[in-house]
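On clarity, I found the account of how folds are encoded harder to follow than it need be. Since the whole study asks how a given chain folds, the encoding of that fold should be made plain. For illustration, here is how one protein appears when written out as sequence plus structure tokens:
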Amino acid sequence: MRVVDPVADQASGLRRLLMRPPAQAWRFVGCESRVGATSLAVNLAAVLVQAGEEVLMLDEHLSSTNVGNMLFVKPRHDLLQVIRGDKALSDVMLKASARLQVLPVARAVRELPRLSPTERQRLHDCLSAASSNVEVVLVDAGLPEKCLMTDAGLSMSRLVLVTECTAGGITACYRQVKRLAHQGQTQPLHVLVNQVPRGCDAQSIFDHLAGMAYERLKVPLTCLGYVPVDDRFSRATQWQGCVATSFPGSAAARALTAIGVAMARMKAGIFPDSTAGRMMTFV
């Protein structure tokens, strides 16, 4: 009797789902500081690369723990310099691996309101060129309301709110949803719950949050998934590696692969129904 490796089986399913239509952008925003949004985005990039995807990461942070530094590709330039004609796009793009590139955009995001029409056209051209040969764009976003992809007139991105399985985390997430609703947010909203401890009923917490968001704000939320507390995740981060490659059989790696599958299904036009995206109690 053949023994099925669940991790390999998930990865195989992920490869089958991934196609080559225009790149879909996913923006990851931490509802609070230190919820691990950057680390999750980097690790999901590794999962997608393992599945054969060409991935572009837009790095909107200047901190020492940003995407570039986590991937050992310390940024020296920014997209803003390309927009202003000071650098070529090839000078700014960073190659983290054969299938993963990083584009530092922190300064460009901060200058968005002040860009001239000519500069906005250059922004559009730069992002079109950067994303033309990739399947997925992952954005480690600084501000949820400022979206380079949308501002440049490119494809609509999906916004992922990263929170924790705590009262404070859920309150912060609802506050973020409320602020976005009042600003006329039109992007699809997803919630990713990080650092779920043993015994925490993450699904009930998400259901409560989604119920409040729809009842009070008429904003539908989709559960993208959850990542349990796993010391191998933090160990991989300390080693400046990715848990999916360093500890492929770990609980965190399995959860991230499942999230990658969910992303691929949405990209393929398979959207969750009212019971999809269920998060189990982590025991």
